[in-house]
Structure formats: C-alpha cells, structure tokens
Amino acid sequence: MHIESSPRPHQSGGAGPLIEARGLVKAFGGMRAVDGMSIDLRRGEMLGLIGPNGAGKTTLFNLLAGSLKPTSGSIVLDGIDVTNAGAERRIGAGVGRTFQIPRPFAEMTVLENVLTGEQNQLGERIWMNVLRPGRVAAQERAAVEKARALLDFVTLSRLEHEPARVLSGGQRKLLELARILMADPKAILLDEPAAGVNPTLLELIMDRILDLNAQGKSILLIEHNMDMVARLCGRVVVMAAGRHLTEGLPDEVARDPAVIDAYLGGIH
Description:
- There is one protein chain.
- The chain is α/β, with parallel strands linked by helices and 268 residues long.
- Helices cover 37% and strands 23% of the residues.
- It is built from 10 helices and 10 strands.
- The chain has helices at 57-65, 87-93, 110-115, 126-131, 133-153, 169-181, 199-214, 226-232, 250-255, 257-263, and strands spanning 17-28, 31-42, 46-50, 72-77, 80-81, 95-97, 187-191, 218-222, 235-240, 243-248.
- It has a 6-stranded mixed beta sheet, with helices on both faces. Strands 2-1-4-5 form a 4-stranded antiparallel beta sheet, covered by helices on one side.
- A hairpin with a 2-residue loop joins strand 1 and strand 2.
- The longest helix is centred in the middle third of the chain and has 21 residues, at 133-153.
- 41% of the residues are buried.
- Mean pLDDT is 88; it is low at 1-13.
C-alpha cells in the first residue's frame, strides 16, 4: 500500500479531545458492525479513518453523528455525554457530517439547499412571525448572506439560482459541505469526499478542507484515497472487522504489516 508523505503542516489538538468514543458496539442481529471501537478526535485535528471495505467505518460515523444509537459504549462531545442523543441534537451540539453519496433537494435551488442547514430559525415558530416579524426578517436576511458567503467559499456562487439537480457529483459534495457549515459545527465528519470526484475538483475540495481545519474545525475523514489522507491528516486510525486495529502517522500506518494484511484480506 503506497502513501506519499504529506508536504503540508497539520494542526495538533489541544486541551483534550473534542469527541471521545469509548467501547462502541453496534450489533445488527448477531453481527457486530462495530465491535468495541474507541476513538478520539482532538480539538483542531484532522484525523483520518481508514480500513478495508466492511471494516465498519461508516457505521462508526453514523454512531458519532447520531443517526444510529450504539448497542453499548459511550460518546462524549465537548465534555457532554451525547450517547443517546439523535442526529438533530448532535448537529445543534456542533457535529456536522457529509455522506459518501450526497442527496441534495434536487428541485430546490443551490442557495435554498444551503439555507436548509441553518439552525434555530425564529421563522419556524408561527407566533414569532406575528409578534416579531422584523426580527424574523432580519434573521432571514442574515441567513441568506451567510449562505451566499459559504457558496462563495465552495465556489458555487454562480450556480446559486440553479436547481441542485444540475450539479456534478463533486459539486454536490461541495454543496453538502456548505450546508453543514451553516450550522457552525465544531467537528466535521467527512465520508469519502474524494469518491467519484475528478482530479481538478478534488484539489479544490482538499484546499477547502485544509482551510476549515486552519480555522480551527476538527475534522474526521473516511477516505480510500490514501495519498489524500497522507496530504491532509496528521494522524490515522485503522479499523478492521469493526475494531480498532492501529493508529499513527500516515507513513507509519502504511508500513504496518497488520494494516497491509487487513487490506489484502488477512482480516475478515
């Protein structure tokens, strides 16, 4: 398995982990997709999560994001136990996640899709529209300005009035990134951002991820593109068969015989 050494600096975490997961188990019937997995995402860190197909990486993401509840184990976010909190509460607490295959609202405009990521809008409460219409309107204007700034960040401004269905796969990943940024997450979970993306757009996506990390966002990245992982991540955790296999610097992990064995099928 070939991984090039990263030419770019990485932020290191400080003041303890932002996300602490301990002994996570997720069983589906008699099968444990995640089997006693523990992982930390440090503050300001860019952490890679790799492993062969079927290792349980996406299931672990779903547990961390709140779309699945663990069979056992615990998840602490910024010092607060969120083990049984759902996805909506996790978003409110500062965890945003993307999906390997983004599914935007196809007939809504690109701008409208980004606006769906805004949290706690006053206009969602009917009585506020009656009693405080000025505040509602001001908040809506601020949300539109923020959404347009994020579209500029992901280079989709020229498409803001187009329906999301016209976007390419890579552009949809950028749109999804802009949408989760509307919620101002502390931690961003990225599920294979390189999958199905052309090389030019991939460079743009990597640059934006690095920008977010430089702004202090903690990022956990699932990715099969090993060179991308090496360029972005200062630390890599390897999963196999639902368990923590090893972790370390990208080039160290790439040379680990247990990791090579896992990718070649020695671990099932």
